[in-house]
Amino acid sequence: MKISPPLEQATLITRYKRFFADIRLSNQSIFTVHCPNTGSMRNCLVAESNCWFSRSNDPKRKLKGTLEITTTPSGHKVGVNTNRPNKLVKEAIENGTITELQGYQTVQTEVRYGEENSRIDLLLSDHKEDRSKLCYIEVKNVTLEADRDPTLLRFPDAITSRGVKHLRELQLMVDQGHRAVLFFCVQHSGAQKVTAAADIDPLYAKTLQAAQQNGVEILAYGCRLQPDEIVITRKLTFNRQEIID
Questions:
Q1: What is the C-alpha separation between 95 and 165, in angstroms, rounded?
Q2: Is the dihedral of CA 92, 97, 98, 101 positive or negative?
Q3: Which of 122, 153, 194, 205 is the Cys-Cys partner for 198 at CB 3.0 to 4.6 Å?
Q4: 191: left (phi > 0), else alpha (psi -120 to 50), else beta?
Q5: Which fold has domain 85-242?
Q6: Residue 79 has what pLDDT?
Q7: Maximum C-alpha span of the chain
Q8: What is the rounded average pLDDT for all residues in the chain?
């Protein structure tokens, strides 16, 4: 995903009221930007660390900037804009980076499905070998690095009843004969592996384990984060052994 104009660097001061962040520009002025992330952002909000933001010329917006990338305690970059992962995954499918999701002729976004008033992030259809089998993809942005190992990324960073609902819906699609994929889009420059944060949300971790055992596929891919481009580049290991610990 090309970013034009490129993101601007600043210094993170603080995030507050969930959707606001104060940053310090190079001229030392304070600039309040939108924080497009409803999670806890644990390990993503190091005061006085480098951050990157985008600007908007939309006259309807009160905040003219958006926080895009921050720095973790270990010094890695993390992408905190949760509006980007779906687009990143779609782009990576279309350019062939995600080998497990090739062969489909059609990619749709935000399609209603399931029994709990859900929308699937990506729906793949018209596979060249089996046009009747659909592939439902739920995308999760992952930024929480483990305290003991910054190459291990964990999800979720807060209790997520919505995430549990999504797993139930994916399981239903498998039961109906389709593919269902939980896709961890890991916007972290040092990530090598991913696991579920059972200590943060035990129900999510157990539901995820059951879903995987019953046919829901789990994919994890890492990103390269630069001011002028964010792109999915590499497959990561999903460490099932650490789900329940």
A1: 30
A2: positive
A3: 205
A4: beta
A5: Trna Endonuclease; Chain: A, domain 1 (3.40.1350)
A6: 99
A7: 58
A8: 96
CB 239 within 8 A of CB 193: yes
223: which strand partners? Answer: 232
What angle is formed at CA 185 by the lines to CA 180 and CA 189, rounded to 5 degrees?
A: 155
Those residues of the chain that have pLDDT short of 70 are 241-245
Residues 6+ away with beta carbon under 8 Å from 244: 198, 205, 206, 209
Please report the pLDDT score of residue 132 as a whole number: 86
Inter-axis angle of helices 202-213 and 161-175, nearest 10: 10
The single-letter DSSP state of residue 7 is P
Place of tokens 């009843």: 161
Locate tokens 């779906």: which residue? 86
CATH topology of domain 8-73: OB fold (Dihydrolipoamide Acetyltransferase, E2P) (2.40.50)
pLDDT at 244: 41
Torsion of CA 15, 21, 23, 29, to 10 degrees: -120
What are 178's two structure tokens? 């389709």
Contact between residue 135 and residue 181 where contact means Cβ atoms under 8 Å apart: yes
pTM for this model (two decimals): 0.95
State the pLDDT at residue 243.
44
Tokens encoding 188: 């972290």
The answer to whether 230 and 1 are in contact (CB under 8 A) is yes
